[in-house]
Amino acid sequence: MKDLLAWSKSWINEKKKNYIGGEWVTGNQDKIYENENPATNEILSRWNMASFEDVNHSIYEANAAFKSRSWIDLPMRKRASLLRSIGSLIRQHENEFAILESLANGKTYKEALTGDLPDCSDIFDYYAGWIDKVYGESVPVEKGFINFTRKEPLGVCALIVPWNFPLLMACWKLAPALSMGNSIIIKPSEHTPFSLIRLFQLIDENLDLPKGLINLVLGDGFVGEYLSSHSNVHKVSFTGSTKVGKNIISRSCRSSLKSLSLELGGKSPNIIFADCPDLKEAINRSFDVMFSHKGEKCSEPTRFYLEESIYDKVLQGLVSKANNIICGDPLSSQSDQGPQCHKLHFDKIIEYIDSGIKEGAKLECGGFFDDKANNGKGYYVRPTIFSNVNSSMRICQEEIFGPVLCISKFKTENEALALANNSMYGLAAGVWTSDISRAHRMAQEIDAGMVFINRYGCYDFSSPFGGFKESGWGKDMAIHSIDSYTKTKSVWIQI
Ligand code: NAD
């Protein structure tokens, strides 16, 4: 681990480049980006952002690769085998990737290694398996004709990913997009580009993919905006904030009509009824999904609604767990929680905590910069719990994306439902109850893309992931990602 850490730090420090048309190309923008280690405030790396010419270059190469058919015309099983090889490369280097994620994002090494990495590799196996299973339809039409459908790739897909699961969100997009024969240009978040650069380096060194099939451009929102507005990009798949998602919708259609998939923000409710089958399990599981990855997860349950009779007990259980969390060096196995990803984000969280106090919520624990976590360095916020929260408060309506939990009580099922649905977001929701009828009523009535009954945060490649309302458009995973990276052609033959 010590050697790998030294190697990772020195590798991060090397000049970082774009990967365009199979070559490593230094960004042509004069603007230099600096990455800070959020645990120590040390500068990890400095690199030049891609210029608009660099982005044009990547779009040109990706289109040329797509038109050459060098990828789609490979024998299906060869394409599948190359995808599986990407998964294997990740698996072989998982410790290294976990260190890179931890250094740039601040999540603990163990969270990255056991949470993010297995899915990063397995998803390539999963979508490799789909390649020879995407059937068209044989359509019943009038006598004298045959009508059938074909699924075809879209062309060049721009994949724009956030900083909270840097490699995982990238793999969620790369695997299905490539499996269906598209060429891609991916832009990691400027805060956490390293794991993806390293993956591209490993692919470049070990696999023989067609030139221009995969391209990587480095930069901030301006680079993302330019990429997603370009007329020669045929699809934008974006995961990030609702604000940027809306910007992409309006800009992406100015020069051409593109396919869009948007996985956006959340403010998910978690309703615990007094008849919950196992209150201890409800407290433990709800706490863990809320505060793991330092609360920087789109689907985490940030609004807890507790039935009046169990309110005090659950609140007490949560506060006691929060007080036991060890914030510290994310690379240490002793630490439960690392620092928030970057300074602007840390400042935003602290501002929300202040607003909650000013608006009259009761601060039960946390709520401050943890200067004991790492000798006064880093962006540490202790797990923070507010009680007596009402729906009009900013902390209850806006996505904080940090370790800040809002708790309120309810008396009736209808009240709980109304509180849960009182949000512009609709990503996920949790319900804990032993009453099967109530569980079904809630599952039907809650306006969210994913509802978890008696276990928050279930997830599988075979089940759709994605939200309603301002949490996004479309679904990831399973056949939904296949649909999202293909178009359906209807073919008629007169016989
Ligand atoms: P962000 O929207 O600030 O940035 C996401 C990506 O978009 C980054 O690569 C960024 O450089 C780029 N970008 C910024 N401005 C852009 C623009 N105008 N045009 C095109 N690209 C632009 O989000 P973030 O702060 O990196 O991530 C946190 C957000 O992501 C949260 O809102 C969280 O809920 C959301 N998220 C959602 C899901 C989901 O599946 N629904 C998963 C993870 C994160």
Description of the structure:
The chain has 495 residues and is α/β, with parallel strands linked by helices. It has 2 domains: 2-264 and 471-492, Aldehyde Dehydrogenase, Chain A, domain 1; 269-461, 3-Layer(aba) Sandwich (Aldehyde Dehydrogenase, Chain A, domain 2). The protein is 40% helix and 21% strand. It has 16 helices and 22 strands. It has helices at 2-13, 52-68, 76-92, 94-105, 109-130, 166-179, 194-206, 221-229, 242-252, 279-291, 311-323, 343-358, 394-397, 413-421, 436-445, 478-484, and strands at residues 18-20, 23-25, 32-36, 43-48, 138-139, 145-153, 156-160, 183-187, 214-216, 235-239, 259-263, 268-272, 301-307, 362-365, 384-387, 404-410, 425-426, 428-432, 450-453, 468-469, 472-473, 486-494. The strands form 6 sheets. A 7-stranded mixed sheet has the order 14-15-16-13-12-18-19, with helices on both faces. Helix 1 (2-13) packs across helix 4, helix 5 (109-130) packs parallel to helix 6 and helix 10 (279-291) packs across helix 11 (311-323). The structure holds nicotinamide-adenine-dinucleotide. Residues 160-164, 169, 187, 189-190, 220-221, 224-225, 228, 239-241, 244, 247-248, 263-266, 298, 399, 401, 427, 467, 471-472 line the site of nicotinamide-adenine-dinucleotide (NAD). The site of nicotinamide-adenine-dinucleotide (NAD) has 31 residues, from helix 8 and helix 9.
Which key phrases capture this entry?
single chain, alpha/beta, Aldehyde Dehydrogenase, Chain A, domain 1, Aldehyde Dehydrogenase, Chain A, domain 2, seven-stranded mixed sheet, six-stranded mixed sheet, 40% helix, globular, binds nicotinamide-adenine-dinucleotide
